[in-house]
Amino acid sequence: MATSRTALIIGASRGLGLGLVQRLHEDGWNITATVRNPQQPGALADVPGVRVEQLEMNDTAQLDGLKQRLQGQVFDLVFVNAGVMGPLPQDLETVQPQAIGDLFMTNAVAPIRVARRLAGQVREGSGVLAFMSSILGSVTIPDGGEICLYKASKAALNSMINSFVVELQRPDLCVLAMHPGWVKTDMGGENAEIDVLTSTRGMLEQIKAQSGHGGLRFINYKGEPLTW
Ligand SMILES: NC(=O)c1ccc[n+]([C@@H]2O[C@H](COP(=O)([O-])OP(=O)(O)OC[C@H]3O[C@@H](n4cnc5c(N)ncnc54)[C@H](OP(=O)(O)O)[C@@H]3O)[C@@H](O)[C@H]2O)c1
After folding, report:
1. What is the pLDDT of residues 63-76, one digit of tens each?
2. pLDDT for residue 131 is more than 60
């Protein structure tokens, strides 16, 4: 059944962010979505009624500008999805310090800087603030050696989310660190286990199920709890 809930998706030009916008649209939500280059919105332009805003997450002026433009709006969902794989190969002997800095800035620090500015606009009681984490962010998962820097950046994101939730002092707020599955996107590659439709359908289902339950949880697109 259609609803008129409101969502803000950060990083919606392609992949999972775009898929989330498509699922939310099908479910009747009012959507604001950010892209780095609004002149080239790609397939996002095919989703009717989406308000497209510009955001390069690592740019403080753009973060402040977005906050200003969205002032007064209340969101049922804010989903900070954007992220990068970082330099390849992730060879610790040859990787450049700047590339490591960019990876950790984008994946671990910038999502919190987005959330700090927008958490106050997540609906009291039933709102959901979600971050796109990864099961690789769990320090207990032994896989991922070839992408150890990416894995560490998602572990850092999980740690930053934990610190942010303490700083926030809003026990009513549902905060999710979400693993989307291994998904066929530019990042996940064509050998990934599931498609964007399956992942984003699952994540939307979980967001709706978790709404109203305050606190921080690390879960996957099927709603299974994951170990930090
Ligand atoms: N695919 C998987 O299997 C998988 C598994 C676990 C977690 N994840 C996570 O899911 C999220 C989405 O991944 P994906 O698979 O959809 O990857 P993707 O297809 O590579 O899309 C990445 C998205 O992030 C945006 N982005 C990157 N850096 C940004 C920045 N500095 N500021 C603003 N936007 C930025 C990109 O925008 P542009 O188009 O402008 O580059 C793009 O919209 C990421 O956080 C990723 O780590 C993915």
Report:
1. 999 999 999 999 99
2. yes
First to last CA, the chain: 35
Mean pLDDT confidence for 176-180: 98
Residue 183 has pLDDT above 50, yes or no: yes
- Residue nearest to ligand 1 atom 45, measured at CA: 83
Nearest to 82 by CA among 47, 102, 110: 110
For a pocket test of ligand 1, which of 84, 112, 136, 195 has the largest count of ligand atoms closer than 8 A to its C-beta? Answer: 84
7 membership: H or E segment, kind and range: strand 6-10
Domains of the chain, each with CATH number or no CATH:
6-220 (3.40.50.720)
Pair 12, 20: CB distance under 8 Å: yes
Facing residues of 220 across strands? 179
| pLDDT recorded at residue 47 | 98
For residue 196, count CB atoms less than 10 angstroms from its CB and return exposed for 0-12, middle for 13-18, buried for 19 or more.
buried
CA of 224 to the centre of ligand 1 (A): 22
- With a Cβ cut-off of 6 Å, ligand 1 is lined by 11, 13-17, 36, 55-58, 81-84, 106, 132, 134, 179-180, 182-183, 185-188, 192
